[in-house]
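Thread: Newbie trying to understand structure tokens

Hi all, I'm a second-year student working on a class project, and my supervisor (Dr. K.) asked me to get a predicted structure for one chain before our next meeting. I've only ever worked with sequences, so writing a 3D structure as a token string is new to me. If someone could post the tokens and maybe explain what I'm looking at, I'd be very grateful. Here's the chain:
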Amino acid sequence: MQRNSRIFDHFMRLGDEVTPKLRWNAQTESEHSIWRKKFRRKLGELLGRMPERVPLQVHWGERVESSLFTRHKIYVRSEEHYWAPAYYFVPKALKKRAPAIVCLHGHSGILPYIREGDKEQRAKAKALALDYAPFFAEQGYVTIAPIQRGWNETAEETDIEYGVRRNCHRMTMDSLLIGMTPVGLRCWDASRMIDFLQTQDTVDPTRIGVAGLSGGGTVGLFFAAIERRVKLAMIAGYYCTFRDSIYEIYHCICNCIPHMMEWGEMSDVGALIAPRPFLVISGTKDAIFPIEATKRAYGELSAVYGLLGAEENLEKDFFDGPHAWSNRKTLPFLKKHFCA
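---
Reply by user tm_fold:
Sure, no problem. This is what the structure looks like when written as tokens:
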């Protein structure tokens, strides 16, 4: 036997030996329903303890006008001692209640996602189409872009000084030590955004979706899986397999959900979204979410939608590009399912 002392090689072997205990294998809709109930409960456990719900309170801050929308800076009370900052975009041409989209940013922080920041950040936003929150607002959709915990003004100044990775590192360490997870807490904040949206007379409370790229795609996928009020999901630069991406390739620690691969794969999380509309967006040159693994995961999810007779609700945009957003199919997808 050849001796191995390389820990990475050892973990890759261990990863290959993992068989998720609640892998989707339903043959009928009834079996799917039973599996969904079990896996949703388990996923809730894996995402960790959630905060105590507090009454909805909103603080309205700055207001910025553009030709097509008004952008509000708001703070939504998410916990007793934590207010989640967000940017709320309201189209000016609205004549009736409109669909709304919770737009989640990735590991570039909020600024390029709302067309703000320095020259470099604005250039990145344009090159990678990060500005989907204002973009969808320009198309007539109400959007809200929360600042995810650990980023921008939510981070400690000492963490900002040491760079972006430490922001999430501190949050992950602290949350795990008290029985929570970064993904779970970010999902909680996103759910509070829906609480807020459903109070607004500009929003159709029955047509709320989620959009997210990269770290925003991480939260967006889990959020849509556990939050039934999300009626549509557009996930970019994330949907793949845990084994081929998060496990094998270096990622920020905030992607880590303890025991996740022990119980399910990424397609299983996606299966909790079915039969709701789901658009998977992925660049064929994405170096951290390999396209071949994404295609396999998409095929597995297609089987779920097929079993439920909802094939038309699952779509893909595998575009020729890097780790980025793409709007090649987003507007037709939204128009088809939100009739807007």
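A couple of things are worth pointing out once you decode it. Residues 40 and 226 are 7 Å apart (CA to CA). The chain has a mean pLDDT of 95. Feel free to ask follow-ups in this thread.
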